[in-house]
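Lecture notes, continued. The same structure-token format from the folding unit now serves as the input rather than the output. Read the line below as a description of shape only.
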């Protein structure tokens, strides 16, 4: 037992010195895999790292963070995203990818307008077209995808006016866009 403890202590010291972080799975996760998308130390999402690709379930208007942690274009800048037409120029989500998103969330059929395959971190905030940034967001109950569109527009305006940094906006929308919606001055 002493040998195990000394090896564990050595490993912890090496991790500390190297600057690595350990993400501890949430004990409420039924799969044993990490259920959140945030690093336990920084609070920033683990951009693009899906820990699940099936059995995904949105809950309470939020994405399944294990399936949709969010992803960004790391080279996108405030100056670029604030240019008119930026989103239109980078949008590229083929129908085949949208179908994969629906499959990950177990949606086999839906009516027009019931869902929107949405970018968790919107394109106008430097979000990626990667499947780890996409989820089938419902229109209802409210707040749904129409309300999230308002959040995206408001946050884009906040970034472009300099009221918030692009990185802060990306983290906020990826981790809990509903909180942003609740504190917006006008809904």
């Amino acid at each position: 037992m002493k040998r195990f403890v000394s090896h564990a202590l050595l490993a912890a010291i090496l991790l500390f010195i190297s600057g690595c972080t350990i993400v501890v799975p949430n004990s409420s996760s039924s799969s044993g895999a990490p259920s959140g998308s945030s690093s336990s130390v920084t609070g920033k999402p683990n951009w693009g790292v899906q820990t699940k690709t099936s059995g995904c379930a949105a809950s309470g208007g939020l994405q399944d963070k294990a399936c949709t942690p969010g992803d960004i274009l790391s080279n996108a800048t405030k100056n670029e995203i604030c240019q008119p037409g930026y989103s239109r120029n980078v949008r590229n989500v083929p129908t085949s990818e949208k179908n994969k998103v629906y499959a990950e969330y177990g949606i086999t059929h839906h009516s027009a307008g019931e869902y929107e395959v949405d970018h968790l971190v919107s394109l106008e905030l430097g979000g990626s077209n990667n499947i780890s940034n996409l989820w089938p967001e419902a229109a209802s109950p409210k707040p749904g995808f129409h309300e999230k569109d308002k959040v995206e527009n408001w946050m884009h305006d906040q970034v472009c006016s300099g009221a918030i940094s692009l990185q802060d906006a990306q983290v906020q929308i990826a981790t809990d866009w509903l909180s942003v919606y609740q504190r917006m001055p006008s809904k």
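Point for the exam: The chain has one domain: 33-183.
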